[in-house]
Amino acid sequence: MDAPNERLVIQPSFPLAWKHASIDCPVVSYEYAWDGRVDSLLIKTPRPLSPTIRLRARFASIKHVAVNGESAGYTVDPGIGYAWIVITPPRSETTRVEIVYGAAALPAIELPAVNGLPGETVFLAAKGGKISAVHDVQGMSEVAIAADGQQCSATLPNQSGVYTVFVLVNGGDARLWVPVELEVKSELEEAPVTDAELTAVPVDLETFHNQRLADLHRNSYHPRIEEFYWVEKAGWMGETGGSRTVKPNGRSWWEGHGKDPTQALDTVLLASANGRFVSDNGIPFLIPASGEDAVFTSLYQNFPDRVEIPVKMRGKKICFLIAGSITMAQSRMENARITVQLGDGADHVLSLRNPETIDDWLGSGGGTPYVQSGRVQPLGGYTHAVLHEMDLGETQEIESVTLETITNETMVGLLGITVMQEE
Question: Which of 330, 329, 411, 338 is nearest to 374 (CA)?
Answer without folding.
Answer: 338
